[in-house]
Design brief:
The protein is 25% helix and 21% strand. The chain has 202 residues and is α+β, with helices and mostly antiparallel strands. It has a four-stranded antiparallel β-sheet, with no helix packed on it. A three-stranded antiparallel β-sheet has the order 2-6-5, with no helix packed on it. Strands 8-9 form a two-stranded antiparallel sheet. The longest helix has 19 residues.
Length: 202
């Protein structure tokens, strides 16, 4: 998911950390890294994307669009033919005739405003990074010593609480799976019985 803007701004980070001395370049990089961590875990862009195109394999049942929430579907084509006999329900495309061929879907998805729980996680990760960029457990200068909270030692990684909060946004790997080809049943070839093998004797 390259080319996406961070899920928060340097101004958000300054307000969250109550610090106005964070260099903008450092804040931007920390937010990009934190946003990437969240997006990789959820497998979602999260922010609004318009005109996204995705090729979906044939399957039994509805086609599942991978990015949520789905805002609008612009077009659905199969083998170059524009289809209109489908219905959008949530992030699924239903069609009475089914989906026996690859389909190309152009659609808009994502949130206009980043949800608060996601924003908090991104800012927390970025805040840990700028507070302790070298991942030190403690540092000391002359008589001054400072010990960092254990949470900051894992800056750039999601905690168990973070993952629990992101669970509702996360799409399972392998959600979009092509249906297995239906192979008609063929009986085994007939072969004469071998005397004494597999025979009933009365």
């Amino acid at each position: 998911m390259t080319g996406l803007e961070p899920l928060a701004t340097p101004a958000d980070l300054a307000a969250f950390t109550q610090r106005d001395d964070i260099p903008e370049a450092s804040a931007t990089l920390a937010l990009q890294v934190a946003s990437g961590v969240v997006r990789r875990y959820t497998r979602q862009t999260i922010t609004r994307v318009t005109g996204d195109s995705v090729d979906l394999a044939p399957r039994m049942g509805p086609l599942v669009l991978p990015q949520r929430p789905v805002v609008a579907v612009t077009s659905v084509t199969v083998d170059g033919t524009l289809l209109t006999d489908w219905t959008l329900r949530g992030n699924q495309l239903h069609r009475a005739a089914g989906w026996s061929e690859w389909a190309t879907v152009v659609y808009d998805h994502g949130y206009e405003d980043v949800p608060g729980d996601i924003l908090g996680i991104v800012l927390g990760l970025a805040g840990q990074s700028v507070a302790n960029p070298e991942m030190l457990r403690s540092e000391g200068i002359d008589d001054f010593n400072r010990t960092f909270a254990s949470e900051s030692l894992g800056a750039g990684t999601l905690s168990a609480d973070d993952k629990a909060a992101l669970r509702e946004y996360r799409i399972r790997a392998g959600t979009i799976v092509p249906a297995a080809p239906r192979v008609p049943y063929a009986p085994p070839p007939y072969s004469p019985a071998v005397p004494g093998v597999g025979e009933w004797r009365w």
